[in-house]
Automatic annotation (TrEMBL):
GO terms for biological process: regulation of transcription by RNA polymerase II. Belongs to the Mediator complex subunit 27 family. GO terms for cellular component: mediator complex. This is Mediator of RNA polymerase II transcription subunit 27. InterPro entries: Mediator_Med27 (IPR021627). Its main location: nucleus. The keyword Membrane does not apply. The lineage of its organism: Eukaryota, Metazoa, Ecdysozoa, Arthropoda, Hexapoda. It is found in: Nucleus. One of its GO terms (molecular function) is transcription coactivator activity.
Length: 295
């Protein structure tokens, strides 16, 4: 009996360690690149840190499987049995033991429930596609690609955006063509070089006004590199092959919110600076400013 309790205690400790390390992995992923990663090779440092955490979680999971396999399966439904009376104890240590047992069971039940739901969702959303053979009796009309449109259509779209935001100055270093490149300036705050592929945004780079208009060279300022990363995320978020014009207008409406990049405080911490940076993220719905660590 004492041996069974010792094995149970070892298994619970293994689960507790696994849960703590998994929480640390999610916290690291949500935080992303931090200031303590430095400027040089920060992506590699972040990936090495994440790889080390995942290796630790994998080892913890192996320990949990080993400790659980050594336990004797209960003859019937497993419950807390007499440990429920621990909640009536006046000793603080025994009360804490009861709480830990309850939390462990709740955690394992949630894992079982979430894994079942995830399995059902993956089963209903199969990535397999069926294709019809070329020997069909009816031929469908080929839809016009958003990549192949007349230059005047793109010119009308960009002209409409220029009229929609009076404080945004749009110039075209490359004349209007099927795949134009424009420069959108937000007053004296920043400028963005935006490359189109037909009616869809293909690439965005944000820089200071004093920097070059090279599309493939990132800004030397960290604040504008952060804004560029967020622009790429917003570009993917607003992407819509079925409604490309609305997608471009939605992106430009979101981009226009950066006209207060250096004047609006963070919505969560109410500070203008955090890690020597202003709020470089704008909420995709409310357009409210947030620091990278506060979003």
């Amino acid at each position: 009996m004492d041996r069974d309790l010792e094995q149970l205690h070892t298994a619970l400790n293994s689960i507790k360690v696994l849960r703590s390390n998994v929480g640390q992995v999610f916290e690291t992923v949500s935080s992303g690149l931090r200031a303590d990663h430095g400027e040089e090779g920060k992506e590699n440092k972040f990936m090495l840190e994440l790889q080390e955490l995942l290796t630790t979680v994998n080892n913890n999971l192996r320990d949990v499987e080993t400790s659980v396999s050594s336990l004797t399966p209960p003859p019937g439904p497993f419950n807390l049995a007499n440990t429920t009376y621990l909640s009536q104890e006046t000793t603080q240590e025994r009360q804490a033991l009861y709480g830990q047992l309850v939390n462990s069971y709740k955690w394992t039940d949630k894992i079982r429930e979430y894994s079942t739901l995830a399995g059902n969702i993956l089963a209903t959303n199969s990535v397999n596609k069926t294709y019809k053979t070329f020997s069909t009796t009816k031929r469908r009309k080929t839809q016009t690609s958003n990549h192949n449109v007349a230059p005047d259509v793109i010119e009308n779209l960009i002209t409409g955006i220029d009229r929609l935001f009076p404080d945004v100055t749009i110039t075209a270093p490359r004349p209007f063509a099927p795949n134009p490149i424009i420069q959108a300036s937000l007053g004296r705050v920043l400028k963005a070089i935006i490359a189109f592929k037909g009616l869809m945004i293909e690439w965005v780079v944000v820089k200071a006004h004093s920097e070059s208009n090279d599309l493939w060279t990132e800004s030397r300022y960290k604040v504008f590199r952060k804004v560029t990363e967020n622009c790429h995320a917003a570009m993917c978020h607003f992407h819509s092959p079925t409604m490309p014009e609305l997608a471009v207008r939605s992106f430009m409406h979101w981009f226009h919110s950066y006209n207060t990049l250096f004047s609006s405080p963070c919505k969560r911490c109410a500070n203008h600076l955090h890690n020597n940076l202003p709020p470089t993220w704008r909420d995709l719905r409310t357009l409210e400013p947030y620091h990278e660590e506060c979003k």
